[in-house]
Specification:
Number of domains: 2
Structural class: alpha/beta
Radius of gyration: 18 Å
Number of strands: 11
Order of helices and strands: EHEHEHEHEEHEEEEEH
Oligomer: single chain
Helix content: 25-40%
Shape: globular
Largest sheet: 6 strands, mixed
CATH class of the largest domain: Alpha Beta
């Protein structure tokens, strides 16, 4: 299907791992890709609406991609002047980042607003969890299991996830919160074992995120995107 990206293209942001990831997926999977956020973080609202309108007229599902706060900024525009709803079968990929530099929003509130603004149902909104240090990502299995699977991230079989006691670094019991540690066999050209300051629980390989360790530095490529779009919003 066609991609509609709220993340700048890899040509626009060559040093962004998030842009690289979306570009690699687009090269492999997209019939056509529309990049509606530029290198300065400015949203091309007219193009966003035009792509949505064309998709509705052609009844051609699309994949809309963006960080949580990029989706929020687009939805705020669409709430002011409603756009054509996306066709049945359209999907949204949300790449995290619910707490930004100038605002935060809860997942359920965002998804409710996204559904109303775009017509994409909750079980077609997939959240992705990844990081620059890992080649692999984890995804919610909502497309195959339904909305009840939201919040449980599934890793590919070559990525092992453990929750560790922050003092001893021993693995905690299933369902108990701990520091998330990843062993990614896809990191063949880098460090395979990554210990994070993300807190979560692991049950049968599925990860439930609970946030960051208190006092840990906020980080993530979604924050870089929020900073970029915040700057663009201030300048406009």
């Amino acid at each position: 299907m066609r991609f509609l990206s709220l993340i700048p293209s890899p040509e626009a942001l060559p040093n962004s791992s998030l842009s690289f990831m979306v570009g690699a997926a687009a090269d492999e999977l997209a019939t056509e890709t529309h990049w509606v956020v530029d290198a300065a973080g400015a949203l091309d609202e007219d193009r966003l609406r035009s792509v949505m309108k064309d998709a509705a007229r052609a009844d051609e599902p699309i994949l809309l991609l963006g960080t949580a706060l990029a989706l929020l900024r687009a939805v705020e525009r669409l709430e002011e002047v409603p756009a054509d709803p996306l066709p049945t079968g359209s999907r949204i990929m949300e790449t995290g980042g619910f707490k930004g530099l100038d605002r935060s929003i809860g997942r359920e509130e965002l998804y409710d607003r996204v559904t109303k603004a775009t017509g994409v149902l909750r079980d077609s909104i997939v959240s992705e969890y990844g990081m620059t240090e890992l080649l692999s990502q984890l995804y919610e299995p909502v497309l195959s299991e339904g909305p009840h699977a939201a919040g449980a991230y599934v890793a590919p079989p070559w990525l092992k996830v453990r929750a560790l006691d922050p003092v001893t670094l021993d693995e905690v019991e299933p369902g108990e919160p701990g520091l998330l540690a990843f062993f990614d066999l896809a990191n063949a050209g880098s460090v395979c074992h990554v210990l994070t300051e993300d807190v979560g629980a692991v049950v049968e390989g599925r990860v439930s995120l609970q946030g960051r360790v208190q006092g840990a530095e906020p980080r993530g490529c979604s924050r870089a995107m929020d900073e970029l779009m915040s700057s663009a919003g201030s300048a406009s």
